[in-house]
Hints:
The protein is α/β, with parallel strands linked by helices and about 450 residues long. The protein contains 14 helices and 17 strands. Helix 7 packs parallel to helix 8 and helix 8 runs parallel beside helix 11.
Amino acid sequence: MTTLIENARILVNGNLVRTNIVVEAGKIESTSKRKVTRFDEKIDAKNNFVLPGVVDAHAHLHDPNFTYREDFTSGTVAAAAGGVTTVVEMVLSTPVDTPERVRNKIRLGKKMSLIDFSLHSGMMNLKNSVNIGKIADIGVRSFKTFTCKPYYADDHTLRSLMRETTAHESILNVHAEDEELANENLKRLTAEGRKDPPAHLEWKPNAAEDRAIKKVIRFADELQARVHISHISTAEAVGLVSKAKNKRVKVTVETCPHYLTLTGKDMKKLGPYLKMNPSLRTVHDLETLWRGLRDGTVDLVTSEHAPGERTEKDVGWSDIWKAWGGIPTIETMLPLLLSEGVNKGRISMWKLQQVISENPARVFGLYPMKGTIRKGSDADLVIVDLKLTRRVRGSDLHYKVGWTPYEGWRLRGWPWLTIHRGSVIFQDDQILARPGKARFLPMFQ
Length: 445
């Protein structure tokens, strides 16, 4: 099947190109201004930007114990509506740490997902580290661990995991917050009887992320290991990573839309609905993260989609420690970055394309099949209208839990058509695809 996308604006090496895009059998066949007369389907991009489909490299979509919150189908329906065409699904709490568990999750993804996917394995420790080689052979080459509870890896374990992932040409993916400082603060807060939502902000302050990232970078430098640090949230983290990159340490980092748009002060109004780990920070941290995206220190933006039901959040009004820590973000990530980033001059469209499509595909070994518009790449595309303005309503979104921390926000810039391997899967607020055509994507193949 041949599809012609005409009147498209694309970015090539940062330069704006007005072009037609020809898609053949799910692949990009050409981009040129030449007139195309033979096609089976024609799509008019209406002189809007056509971007490579978003590659969301960190989203919690399917944990068998929590499918009431989200599953592969509901999560990827929301993804499609948000311009996401590839997802790297992140383990939530049920371990994905043996070849059998990896294969089972791949089987579920192929059956239930609307879009192509890869996986992170985890949660890794000394006992399951022996499985890293066999899991890497399947094509999963990102392994998640924590420097804090509930999956705390001590220094010896962290070093051992780095050696093992390096031996198998893989990435150690780290949630970096310092356990010792967190424990000290939790003891103090407990002694004070603190259960109010702001207590969560004090539990793991900026210093907790600072300490943990310093350690991870030091170990990675010593062992020549490749590490990726999830969801950085602080100005200090940006500075540390910048220095590490200047020293050629093999470190990449991500941040998330919530750390770019919300601060701890917002918790006064939304309370447990903004409980997440790491917690929200200050305006200074927020703006420093934007600067880190602009200058290349921060490599990519991920949704870290981790929904919880309202009842799991509401319990936090009386006891914040009992509330679920996570928010739904996969469908609103691109609109937020278009509205609060591109349209407010914090980030260029070219840089946006890099941090949401190209860079995540490169970091996790999916490029150039994903993350770019070039001959031979998968025809994963999203057409965005930078002028389209609408209010965010949880009732309009497609994931299961039915709420959003951005309720009522007026965002300017939305995706209106999503193409996955040449097929339109979302257009004008309608989902046009069903599960069953998703592929598992081995990393670094």
